[in-house]
Amino acid sequence: MQSPVSTYRLQITEDFDLFEAARRLPYLHDLGVDWVYLSPLLAAEPGSTHGYDVVAFDHVDPSRGGAEGLAALSAEARRLGMGVLVDIVPNHVGVASPTEEAWWWDVLQHGRESEHATAFDIEWPAGDGKLLIPVVGDGDEDAIEVTGTELRYHDLRFPLAPGTTTHEEQHYRLVNWHEADDNLNYRRFFAVNSLAAVRVEDPEVFAETHIEIRRWFEEGLVDGLRVDHPDGLRDPKRYLDDLAQLTGGAYVLVEKILEPGERLPADWATQGTTGYDALAYVDRVLTDPAGQKPLDELEERLRGAPVDWAEMIHGTKREVADGILHSEVRRITREVRRMTTEASFKAVEDAIAELLACFPVYRSYLPEGIDHLEQAFALAREHRPDLAATYDVLHPILSDGWSPPARRFQQTSGMVMAKGVEDCAFYRYSRLTSLNEVGGDPSMFSVSVTDFHETMVIRQREWPLAMTTLSTHDTKRGEDVRARITALAELPDVWAAALEQLLELVPLPDAGFGSLLWQAILGAWPTSTDPDLRSRLHGYAEKAMREAGDRTTWTEPDEAYEAAVHAAVDAAFDHADVRRVLDDLLSSVDEPGRSNALAAKLVAITMPGVCDVYQGSELWEQSLVDPDNRRFVDFDHRAAVLAGTEEDDAAAKLAVTHHALTLRRDRPELFTTYAPVTVSGSAADHVLAFDRGGAITVATRLPVGLAARGWGDTTLDLPQGAWTDVLTGARTDGTLADLLATHPVALLVREDS
Questions:
Q1: Of 628, 588, 604, 595, which is closest to residue 701 (Cα–Cα)?
Q2: Which helix (H) or strand (E) element contains residue 7?
Q3: Which of 222, 242, 378, 436 has minimal Cβ neighbours within 10 Å of its Cβ?
């Protein structure tokens, strides 16, 4: 099996297609990248900017360059000695435009008699034999009309069954959009009605949905795959086994979110996760634990009461189970009731929702993960002792990994976690928002250097080819936004005073959300003019407050509340006193933020695993949540900075990225083990250092405290030999005051190596 040393993620779109990506490969190679890592390539919904809404499995999207574009990119990668990793989406297809997805169209036209009916996870009896399509607006039923051989609803087109002429005669029924919450009878990706799940556990469906992917490997175009959302699949292990057989055992990563302490199943045919677990540890080892108490106190003052994270997410997950994913809960309930009628429908429905709210991780893979199910039952009994008899009925059913309710429960728990935590609670909890990141637990404030080392030793032993990352297309905040916010843990009093002034100058109905908003503004504020910054921040504010869902929502926006939030964004640009407070705050966090950013970048690239650089993040990555993190990347400028013909405020970050990537690619023998490097002296707590087997990473941590005390006599206990910093070319005896005089990081190699 070929495996990468590093990857560089590119978002392939109509505007940045495979031919353009091929043209940029020489720059990536010069930067030090080993493999290029591409977003989904299969044909997607027209105008899709991300590619996760696949509509055809048998060809590369023509708008993204088609088969010719992939061939061109692969050929250029081969010329440069680079590999190709591609993101694939086995869980679902895009059905927003029924005319684009041939299988869905056929099911709509022929119903259960369609040759593709079993490809979708449809519960026909729940719709009285019809597939329910929740697209009709309130009071807009009259817009449904038959035109020629099709049924139309505004711009949406649907087929007519042979020999029929009316809506009532179809195998589907267009219903009010609200019905999706309770009555939808097909499985989706999370709560997205326009992404219908497919049943890749069926061997025939697997074969047909992977026909183009098979070609990539048969023709040597692609070397590895990233599997999107494996937790949505009926049987992730079996799917990965099937994929390994199809690819000949190629390098495969899974987008699996691990909660703290959770382990990836060791028997999966994968080299590991896509790196969110690594990201969480990098951020937290750079976070000052002393900031937890004062920031907790600030959060309590803002909210008017202590905030219990566990209680918060129990509540948000229960809201999801009772709301946008209630149709999934009802489907599980119906499956339970087919096995036993010992408990009433209402009681089972209530208990299933409570168990989903109490589930401690994304999902189990029974029998693996039975402990998590037991934890959910125990917690559910504490929260709802009135349902004890119903839990007794459910326990043997949900513990049996082969029972239909258990299998569907496992597919559903991850949806509830994602929508209740990542897409809701993350926008309600504002203590230190650099911790509110995919794959992280915001209640876990920091990790010690010792804990970091212990985790990395395990990672090197068990998952040496898993990905490490700092930014992705799904992160809530770009890596350098988080790096700057992380500095607030060292400056809690400065932050609290500044926030108080900001909230006085621009009052907000929810001071807690105000904290989250001002942290985002602080983290995203650029060092040079960005003409799009105001619109970007307005876009973020809208998404953040509506995802939080406690004051305003996407479907029922509160105009007065939203106006107040948008006024705060405008004040950052237009209000002189607000700008003064913001500028003072920026002056306090800018240098520490830079130090944290360089430290995180070097650690992420050199720690155990396959390091990924998200597109453009070799310079400052100050994006916020999608779609902000999918903006245009100026590769010409980055190539010029690398060549030394243009300047950039983040040139030091690009240099660190370049030297670290190049050393990992060209000297892999220096990165085969992991051991802590001990540090002695008065500022020993301010450095993270480890030896990868000949390459030693040195990174500053807690830079505000360090600036107040200095390195003093602090020294690395280096192994024998003469050591040189790859970043500066300077020799070192381990004295940190000298070694880190130029950069807050260093990458050491023996001169004789």
A1: 595
A2: strand 6-10
A3: 378
Task: Please indicate, yes or no, whether the overall pTM of this predicted structure exceeds 0.85.
Answer: yes
Share in percent of the chain as helix, strand, coil (round to 5) = 50, 15, 35
* Cross-strand pairs, 749: 695, 724
Phi, psi of 486 (to 5 degrees): -55, -35
Show Cβ contacts of residue 721 under 8 Å, excluding neighbours closer than 6 positions: 750, 751, 752
d(CA 735, CA 714): 6
Pairing mode, strands 188-189 and 172-176: unpaired
pLDDT in tens, 651-692: 999 999 999 999 999 999 999 999 999 999 999 999 999 999
pLDDT mean across residues, the chain: 97
Neighbouring CB atoms inside 10 A of 525's CB total 20
Give the integer Cα–Cα distance in Å for 654 and 639.
10
Q: Residue 6 has which token pair?
A: 């590093």
Please state, in angstroms and rounded to a whole number, the distance separating the CA atoms of residues 77 and 625. Answer: 30
- Amino acid (one-letter) located at 442: P
60: which DSSP letter? B
Residue among 325, 336, 327, 350 at smallest CA distance from 407: 336
CB distance 691 to 675 below 8 Å: yes
| DSSP-derived 3-state class of residue 553 | coil
Residue carrying structure tokens 């540890």: 281
Omega prior to 367 cis, within 30 of 0: yes
**Chain segment 413-455, per-residue pLDDT in tens:** 999 999 999 999 999 999 999 999 998 999 999 999 999 999 9
Using pLDDT thresholds of 50, 70 and 90, give the confidence band for residue 752: confident
